[in-house]
Specification:
Pfam families: Ank (PF00023), Ank_2 (PF12796), Ank_5 (PF13857), NPHP3_N (PF24883), WHD_GPIID (PF22939)
Distance between the termini: 15 Å
InterPro entries: Ankyrin_rpt (IPR002110), Ankyrin_rpt-contain_sf (IPR036770), GPIID_WHD (IPR054471), NLR-like (IPR053137), NPHP3-like_N (IPR056884), Nucleoside_phosphorylase_sf (IPR035994), P-loop_NTPase (IPR027417)
Protein name: Ankyrin
Keywords: ANK repeat, Coiled coil, Repeat
CATH superfamily of the domain at 4-304: Nucleoside phosphorylase domain
GO biological process, one term: nucleoside metabolic process
Structural class: alpha/beta
CATH architecture of the domain at 4-304: 3-Layer(aba) Sandwich
Length: about 1250
């Protein structure tokens, strides 16, 4: 047995995967020393590398005592006082550059500088010479180790070189923990020459933390900057690149490469030389720093995981809005709200709602921010009171979906306790694999469970009146909030304008109107900054006069007081100022007599008068800014707005010298335009300003759309784009993914929206000479200045294809976007509905010219819905039945886009309604889908054939039934469609009705005598479809009409199996009651019980067992129900099956590692423990499996159980004769280090450790 003083090399790893690689490269494994320092809680591996005794320490992932990572180094030096050098070995992120061709699987070595590091520097230099002469030999070393340890091959083998992708710095990572969604293209990948010799190269240089930038080769977080004066060699295998992209695929291989080099360097150092190095314990300070940094790494990794899950859950961040609104709160105000008995009662009692309506401009949003601030101060994070808040906004009305808002509430509650609930983690893992997001029901379920964590949950919702249901939102946020209140007694604080539809919903709850008090407004005025007005600043008497007048004239509106104060800044004499104050008081008096008088509108009128009285430059800038803010299709970022105003006709590019400072632009607008810190966009100061300009923008900016149109065209026509983008279409993704604040800031907006502004331009056309052939246009053509600019723009093909490609990339039209997609000026004009310029474009373009997908201008206009454009094109002899690449005509485009008037027009102009596209669809197939019933009736009126099957065997009536188009399928029945008919796929109307959960139609079809047991091409029946859809009522109806429950589909499952697999307990019970045979096996030999076990449906497993299910059946692949339950990780199912008895042999096979199912799926029993099986279940497993003497593999489940803190099974292990000492090649305690120990808490296994040590492990 070795002595602690025998060990001279300390090998430190931060991650378990690094520790496994290090252990694999030991020449010989040694037993643990007989003793080590008292209270040393470290986990070690012991061995020899050539003549040196090496101790490997892996930093703990959990918490054990105080600062476990710091103790690694402390205890290492205490227990092994003779250690002379340290090796910090693991993985890191590479920093490739033109100078350094660093690739995944390479090794970066950073040697210490100065101090007592001569031995290491000498060894590195010597080894480098050997490598230059004979090659580095890493690959052969790794191959040898993997051959000796085949179990490591899957995780530690080298991945294919094709997975080593270095993206361009400008190409940002997509969401998720892998790069599955980051599709490599020639434009976003840096191409590198294949290596001729070795796969992995070794680089020497700086390994740095993120704040070191000079010639860095590798970034990591454990020891950057700690090598000076300390003989520690840092060796990093490159597992990913230090960019936004993530790649865990190479971690194992990179760890192996680093460990191989570490072994080489250790083997090169002679024993006698090492004895001359300073002992590690003599330089404890540096060691402690390493350990502390590694602890930070561990903590950072946990934070990154939590951040990743929460970001996936919801990207909404109302925190910035809270900070922004809170800065507007004048301390000392709103005490009447915070001290009111209504508010105090809302805080104290669970399940309270406080509704706070208010007039526009009263300060509801600032009041909300004060409430949130009060709550967070009363109940700081980590308490039993949960807090979440939502700021509804008219500017985000199309993005604030109900599901997203509920997800944001859940996210905030998780952040409040700094913990992710297990059920949310499970959903994250499940959805991450599929690249999907949480569904509404899943969010509500997790949200309700999270409510139970807190004594009370306070949800604050501001400006509920500004929330408008997006077109694709199936839910209403007010309904959901009240539902959560009723079910979980959530406390809601809600503000809104006086909107009857909202106020009526809260009429039975406490209410506290928000109206700025005179004292609050006086306090606000007292703290107003008059430094810009020397007239007021130097006259305290005027300040008091202003306070007296405005506090009364503001009518409880902070916004109005703000406007009044701003307007006084321009006054130059006391009389001008007092006259203004009297005007404000007159308005207040008028409001008293006329409640319809709009004081805010008067204030906005005054602001516009102030703007128009300013000098020409300021006035022009203000009108430009307000035109963009009022007419833009979306809010602009600051740089976008600056570029939009700066660009001029025939300009080469827009650079910083052309941009007007944003502060000057805002100042020109006299406070009516602001920057939202939350969204970093430019917007109007208040939603009331939005309402004001919605009614009056035509008055103030009569040529706003024309101005925006010309500026967009000017920007797209910059010479920069022609010089920098020789192949515009192929660069579309790269352009689109650029940061919106870079030097092509407005490009994205202009490419998407220039046509919309042109179409809505207000310029009056002027007469010019005819353009084009005489048979195209005999009348004089009139073009405005904007139209002429459009023609100039469309004369350049590169500009057309670049702008169009950006647009199509954004809307993701799969029928248009392609790597070589091309279109012409006429297609572009038709796409945007630019009727005025289309005739002039026909000079060099034929009316029926096709884009690269063979779509004509008429097809574009029909798809976009521009009926006047369709009229125009038809009058110019456009082919009404032109076929595109998919065999679709313009009629298909209009039908699919649900443009009834265009469909009608095309039919009137002779469109063939019987055309069959290449996929077998007719226009009627598309019209049969939901929300297109009016078009379907029109097509049927015109004689459309309704018996044509598409390539999938579907006929129109099947599509109509599946999509719930009631009027369409009723019409088809009246026209003679046989209820018993089916498509060539064998799908009956009854099947579609069952799948669509259409109970009324199912009953009607059964009355007409349809064959309810008919089978489609996959042998499925209507009963199976009803089970899949989860509609119990339809299942009952079908069974009442003698549907056969035991029919099997093409793969063997019955209706009962489908219901069990869906997890529908009620339908399963119904089928069993009606005599469904649960003993039938599918083509794989699986029973209904196995389907339920794999699905993880414990309640259904109980139901099946109660009805006589046989758990002993073995499938064709050798699986039992118990094994299926373990695969499904369902604790209830496992427990039920074990309690049912008769599983002794099966459990023993699991312990022995002989289960064919587990080997097929790469699972083992300890993986079930990893999913959270309770000690009770583990105890049952052991009791059932203790008859066989466990072999080597029994170490896996037992050690994993210990690791997770299941000390209850320790006596059972001892009593069952488990060989704790010989359950692996090492002692049990050492083997414990080999299994992953992420998340282990000291409080969970301290008793286990005590017992294990006592037992001599």
């Amino acid at each position: 047995m070795s002595s602690p003083s025998d060990y001279t090399v300390g090998w430190i790893c931060a991650l378990t995967i690094e520790g496994v690689a290090a252990t694999a490269f030991l020449d010989q494994k040694l037993e643990a020393p007989a003793s080590q320092a008292k209270n040393d809680a470290n986990n070690y591996k012991y061995g020899k590398v050539k003549d040196h005794n090496v101790v490997i320490a892996v930093l703990p992932k959990g918490e054990y005592g105080n600062s476990p990572a710091t103790r690694v180094a402390n205890d290492l030096s205490r227990s092994f006082p003779n250690i002379r050098i340290g090796l910090l070995v693991g993985v890191g992120g590479g920093a490739p550059s033109p100078k350094h061709d660093i690739r995944l699987g390479d090794v970066v070595v950073s040697i210490p500088k100065g101090g007592q590091s001569g031995l290491l520097r000498t060894a590195v230099a010597s080894l480098e010479i050997d490598h230059m002469m004979d090659g580095n030999g890493l690959e052969s070393m790794i191959t040898e180790v993997l051959d000796q340890n085949p179990r490591l091959m899957e995780q530690f083998g080298r991945p294919p070189n094709s997975t080593d992708i270095l993206f361009q710095p400008t190409f940002k990572h997509s969401k998720g923990d892998s790069c599955r969604l980051c599709k490599p293209t020639p434009d976003n990948v840096i191409e590198r020459e294949p290596r001729k010799n070795e796969k992995s190269l070794i680089h020497f240089g700086t390994i740095a933390s993120a704040n070191t930038l000079n010639d860095v080769l590798c970034f990591e977080m454990e020891a950057a900057g700690l090598m000076n004066g300390f003989p520690c060699l840092v060796i990093r295998g490159i597992c990913d690149y230090s960019d936004s992209h993530k790649n865990k695929l190479w971690q194992g291989s990179a760890a192996m490469a680093a460990a191989a080099y570490a072994k080489q360097i250790t083997s090169l150092i002679r024993h006698e030389e090492l004895a001359q190095e300073t002992k590690l314990c003599e330089i404890q300070t540096q060691i402690n720093e390493i350990a502390r940094t590694a602890e930070d790494v561990r903590s950072q990794q946990e934070k990154e995981e939590q951040f990743e899950i929460l970001t996936w859950l919801s990207q909404a961040d109302f925190g910035q809005q809270q900070s922004e609104n809170l800065r507007k709160w004048q301390q000392g105000t709103l005490q009447w709200l915070l001290e009111s008995h209504q508010y105090q009662k809302w805080i104290r009692e669970k399940g309270e709602i406080l509704f706070c309506p208010g007039i526009p401009g009263a300060g509801k949003t600032v009041a909300t921010s004060a409430v949130i601030q009060d709550l967070t101060q009363r109940f700081p994070g980590g308490t039993d009171i949960g807090i979440a808040f939502i700021y509804c906004s008219y500017t985000e009305r199309n993005n604030q979906h109900t599901t997203g808002l509920l997800a944001s509430i859940l996210k905030q509650l998780c952040q409040f306790r700094n913990a992710i609930p297990d059920d949310l983690k499970e959903l994250y893992i499940e959805h991450r694999k599929q690249g999907t997001r949480l569904q509404y029901k899943q969010i509500v379920r997790v949200l309700k469970s999270q409510f139970g964590v807190y004594l009370r949950v306070m949800v604050v919702v501001d400006a509920l009146d500004e929330w408008q249901r997006p077109p694709d939102d199936a839910f209403n946020i007010l309904d959901e909030l009240l539902s959560l209140h009723n079910e979980s007694r959530i406390n809601h604080f809600v503000t809104s304008r006086f909107v009857p539809t909202i106020s009526n919903r809260f009429q039975n709850y406490p209410s506290l109107p928000i109206l700025a008090s005179q004292s609050d407004i006086s306090e606000y005025i007292s703290n107003y900054n008059w430094s810009s007005s020397s007239l007021v600043y130097e006259n305290p008497g005027l300040q008091e006069q202003i306070k007296s007048y405005i506090s009364q004239a503001s009518e409880g509106m902070f916004l109005l007081a703000q406007f009044y104060l701003r307007s006084l800044e321009d006054k130059t004499t006391p009389r001008e100022l007092t006259d203004a104050l009297k005007l404000y008081q007159d308005r207040a008096d008028r409001k008293e007599n006329d409640q319809n008088f709009d004081m805010l509108a008067e204030a906005y009128d005054e602001v516009m008068d102030r703007i128009n009285r300013r000098n020409a430059n300021f006035r022009r800038r203000a009108h430009q800014v307000l035109s963009w803010v009022c007419y833009a299709e979306r809010q602009l970022y600051v740089k976008e707005l600056q570029a939009a105003i700066a660009v001029k006709e025939n300009q080469v590019e827009v650079d910083e010298l052309d941009l007007c400072p944003i502060n000057l632009l805002l100042s020109a607008c006299c406070g009516i335009v602001v920057i939202s810190e939350a969204s970093e966009t430019v917007q109007l100061v208040h939603y009331t300003a939005q309402d004001y300009f919605l009614d009056r923008k035509g008055q103030w900016f009569p040529h706003g759309q024309s101005y925006l149109a010309k500026q967009c065209i000017n920007y797209l026509s910059l010479q920069k784009f022609q010089d920098d983008l020789p192949d515009p279409v192929n660069d579309v993704v790269q352009i689109w993914t650029k940061d919106p604040l870079d030097r092509i800031a407005l490009f994205q907006y202009a490419a998407l929206n220039w046509g919309h502004h042109v179409r809505n331009a207000e310029d009056t056309p002027k007469a010019i000479a005819p353009i084009g052939e005489t048979d195209v246009s005999r009348a004089t053509i009139t073009l405005s200045e904007v139209d002429q600019a459009v023609l100039n723009f469309l004369s350049c093909k590169d500009k057309i294809n670049l702008a169009l490609s950006i647009h199509l990339y954004t809307i993701q039209d799969s029928t248009l976007v392609g790597e070589d997609f091309k279109a012409n000026a006429l297609h572009m004009a038709a796409f945007f509905g630019l009727d005025r310029v289309i005739p002039s474009l026909l000079t060099g373009v034929k009316i029926n010219s096709q884009d690269s997908n063979r779509r004509t201008a008429l097809g574009w206009a029909s798809k976009a819905g521009w009926i006047t454009t369709v009229h125009l094109l038809l009058s110019l002899n456009a082919d009404v039945d032109a076929l595109d690449f998919y065999g679709r005509t313009p009629l298909f485009e209009a039908t699919e886009s649900n443009h009834f008037e265009i469909v009608n027009l095309l039919i009137e102009r002779g469109a063939d309604i019987h055309v069959v596209a290449f996929n077998g669809n007719t226009a009627l197939h598309y019209a049969a889908e939901s929300n297109r019933g009016k078009i379907a009736h029109l097509l049927l009126d015109k004689g459309a054939k309704f018996d044509i099957s598409n390539m999938f065997g579907q006929v129109p009536i099947n599509i109509a039934v599946r999509n719930g188009s009631r009027s369409v399928y009723n019409r088809l029945f009246k026209m003679g469609v046989n209820p018993r008919s089916c498509g060539v796929d064998g799908r009956t109307i009854l099947m579609e009705a069952a799948m669509a959960k259409n109970e009324d139609l199912v009953k009607e079809l059964l009355k007409q005598g349809v064959n309810l047991n008919s089978q489609d091409y996959q042998n499925r029946t209507a009963l199976m479809e009803a089970c899949r859809a989860g509609n119990q009522k339809i299942v009952e109806v079908l069974l009442q009409h003698d549907a056969k429950p035991d029919i099997q589909d093409c793969k063997g499952p019955t209706a009962l199996m489908k219901a069990s697999h869906q997890g529908d307990e009620s339908i399963t019970a119904l089928l069993l009651k009606k005599g469904a045979n649960q003993h039938i096996v599918d083509h794989d030999g699986s029973t209904t019980l196995m389907h339920a076990c794999e699905r993880g449906s414990g309640r259904i497993v109980r139901l099946l067992l109660q009805n006589g299910a046989d758990p002993e059946v073995v499938s064709h692949s050798g699986l039992t129900a118990l094994e299926c339950a373990i695969i499904g990780f369902d604790e209830l199912s496992i427990k039920l099956l074990l309690e049912h008895g008769g599983h002794m042999d099966v459990v023993s096979q699991l312990f022995e590692g002989e289960s064919p199912k587990l080997s097929d799926h790469g699972a083992a029993l300890f993986e079930a423990f990893e999913e959270g099986c309770s000690s009770e279940v583990l105890q049952l497993l052991m009791e059932r499996g203790q008859s066989k003497s466990p072999g080597w593999h029994n170490g896996l489940p037992f050690l994993k159980a210990l690791e997770d803190g299941h000390e209850i099974i320790i006596p059972l292990m001892r009593d069952s004769g488990v060989d704790l000492i010989n359950c692996s090649k090492e002692t049990g305690f050492n083997y414990w280090l080999e299994v992953e120990s992420c998340g282990v808490k000291a409080e969970n296994f301290v008793h286990v450790v005590t017992w294990v040590l006592f037992a001599g492990w």
